[in-house]
Each structure stands twice: as C-alpha cells, then as structure tokens.
Amino acid sequence: MTYELPAVRGTLTPQKDLSTLTWLRVGGPADWLFQPADVEDLSAFLTALGPQVDVFPMGVGSNLIVRDGGLRAVVIRLGRGFNSIKIEGDLVTAGAAALDAHVARRAAEAGLDLTFLRTIPGSIGGAVRMNAGCYGSYTADVFHSARVVLRDGRVETLDAGEMNFRYRQSDLPQGAVLTDVTLRAPVGDPAALEARMVDQIAKRDATQPTKDRSAGSTFRNPAGFSSTGQADDVHDLKAWKVIDDAGLRGVRRGGAQMSEKHSNFLINTGDATAADLEGLGEEVRKKVYDSSGITLEWEIMRVGEPK
Questions:
Q1: pLDDT computed for residue 306 by the predictor
Q2: With 50 as the cut, is the pLDDT of residue 267 above it?
Q3: Which of 21, 15, 74, 28 is nearest to 274 (CA)?
Q4: Distance between CA atoms of 122 and 78, rounded to whole angstroms?
Q5: What is the pLDDT of residues 159-187, one digit of tens each?
Q6: CA of 108: how far to CAs of 84, 98, 134, 228, in Å?
Q7: DSSP state of 305
Q8: What pLDDT is attached to residue 234?
Q9: What is the mean pLDDT of residues 63-78?
C-alpha cells in the first residue's frame, strides 16, 4: 500500500528493519517507523494520517515476535521525549518509554514501593498494556491513570475502570498510543526496598536465562496468575511445569530453543528466524495439549506477515 504521510517534527524512517528493535532480534521491515518528538507531534501526526493506514504502537520490543515478512503499518515507537519519571507524594508519573526497572528504582529512592517492577523486562507503557506483574503484584494494583493518544489524534486520560485489567491483558483502545502513566505506590523504607530488589535480581538471574536473547515468559500460566515467589507457591498449573511434564525443556527448532534453564523462555540461540521461534512455540502448545489437555496461551505478542 502506498500512502502520504504527514509532516512531523520527530523522525520518520521508511522500510525500518524491526529485527534491530526487538529483544529476540528477528523480524522483517515496517513500512515506516515514526519516532515522535512529543505528545503534540504524535497527536498531529495521527490526526492527519489517513484512517485506512494501520498503526502499531511498539515499546522496547521485549515481549514481541515480528514475523519475517515485516509489518504493513506505521510503527510508532516512543523515545527520549517519553521517558521522564516524576514523583509527587505517593504518585509516580512515568513516560511510557521509561523502563520498568528505572521506575522501580526511582520510586524506591523516594520511599515508594514499586519493587515488583524491578525484574520485569520492558517499558512502563508495555507493563500497563499487558498488566505485567510478578511476586503476587500486578500493574493494575497500583494503576491510577494513563494518558493516551487515540488513533484519530485525540488525547485522553483513562482510569482503571476504562482499562478493564485482567491477567496479562487490558482494554487499551485499538491503535491508541499510551504516552504516560501515573501509579499510586505504597510507602516503604528506601533501604528495605533496595534490599528487596537486590534479592529479586539475584533470584531472577539464578532461575532465568537473562544472558540469552529471549522475550521473557513465552506463555501465560494456565492457573491465571503469576508466581508469588513465596515458599508456599504451587507449580501444578505453571507454564514451565506443564512444558517440563511434556518433556519439552531444551527442545529446539532451527535456531530457536525452549531454554534449558527455564522452560517457559523461548530463546534465539543465534540464527533463529521469527518462523523458527513461532513454529517452536506452536509445537510446544500442541504437545502440551496432547500430554495434559491444557491449551497454553501466548504471552509474547506476534505481529506481521510471514515471509
């Protein structure tokens, strides 16, 4: 499809290779990549962009497989103008491009407890979109409001009721770009919060393949909730457990592998294509269903066209 693009103050790049922007390092080109200068630039662009043109808001690519044929769309990726973090009382307002880990650390320094975000890969915009969580806490638990630019360019503020948070899901309007988020955080002692995050990082590094190319957890837990990290946590309906029970830890397809260290992590061993990764995931889903009757649901988003 050919189409005219509005003038912008940010950056427009044609035929952008998206493999350079995803943590799994796979994927074909987008028709265009738009990196807006600020909210006004983004709003003006979407207002003027023809409604027939698809847009795809993209975070830091931590939870994403772009297929090898790429995306017939304008990919919108927020950058430096959208990563500020401001704290006022118990409210933390972060630009959607701010990394979860940075938000957690800044909050802890101010005596506010967003420590569950410290080990979650990606940006705070993605955390809201996916209702990210761990250790028994979820983004929805601390969500106050979010500012979004809708597909027609209107800027609106959404509250928790409009987001309709569920396990690993929310109802962000189609084509809307989340620009900043306000969270209401519990108060805590800065030293204790820092110590907790150090412990969380150590546990994560001991149990997850943090040095491999992955996109975090591949499938949602069939139980419908995250691991709590507590001693009484049960594993019967955890994604990694049903994958293990099906004998699939370490299984490979081309350059793709289910990690030996954590079997719910899909990794690119070096030369995987998007087709390798998605194909292995679908193979795992089928074999888990055949062995247990459980249908695993993807947590990683898959977009674009096959090659």
A1: 96
A2: yes
A3: 28
A4: 13
A5: 999 999 998 899 998 889 999 999 999 99
A6: 16, 15, 17, 20
A7: B
A8: 47
A9: 97
> Percent helix, strand and coil across the chain, each rounded to 5?
30, 30, 45
Residue range 250-264, pLDDT digits in tens: 999 999 999 999 999
Distance CA 211, CA 224 (A): 27
Report CA-CA distances (Å) from 258 to 67, 250, 301, 305. 18, 5, 17, 23
Please answer whether residues 18 and 66 qualify as being in contact, where contact means their C-beta atoms are separated by less than 8 angstroms: yes
CA atoms within 13 A on the CB side of 205: 8
Residue 135, Ramachandran bin (φ over 0: left; ψ between -120 and 50: alpha; else beta) = left
Catalytically active residues are: 168, 217, 299
- Residue 143 makes CB contacts below 8 A (sequence gap 6+) with 128, 160, 163, 165, 181, 183, 184
Looking at residue 19, what DSSP letter applies?
G
Q: What strands, in cross-sheet order, belong to the sheet with 91-95? A: 85-88, 91-95, 177-184, 143-149, 155-158
Q: Is 31 exposed, middle or buried (0-12, 13-18, 19+ CB in 10 A)?
A: buried
Among residues 209, 207, 130, which one has the least CA distance to residue 170? 130
| Contact indicator for 200, 135 with CB cutoff of 8 Å | yes
